[in-house]
Amino acid sequence: MSHQQRTINLPTVRTGPAKTQTAKGGTTDSVGLTPSVGLTPAQASAVTHPRGPLLIIAGAGSGKTNVITKRLAWLLTTGPDGSKLSGDQILAVTFSNKATDEMEERLDRLMPAGFNEPWINTFHAFGERVLRQNALA
Prior knowledge:
There is one protein chain. With 137 residues, this protein is an alpha/beta fold. The chain is built from four helices and six strands. The strands form three sheets. A two-stranded parallel sheet has the order 1-4.
């Protein structure tokens, strides 16, 4: 089965935690898994992108880390067509250790304790991990 890659260009916007009114009159911030809360339409589209490759092209301050982290949480809790994924089915690759650490921290805040964590690595750490796990002795 072949999947077409989809590219989403995110406009450069600053997104902070948005407060949203709940049904019971309280407020909640945008770290919830409702894709549209605190996100632009393009960002919400990236979070809920159906199965297949997704490339996000965006500049500094556009909310890339927020979008990718919410996408990971969405895949783990809801997933495309309601078929949630396991952490060992997901790979997120970044360029810097700082981005990796930030994504892991944000995902930990979004997910319940004990969830099956996806691979979140830099390109180099991912390559090293694969080589170590599959090296010939």
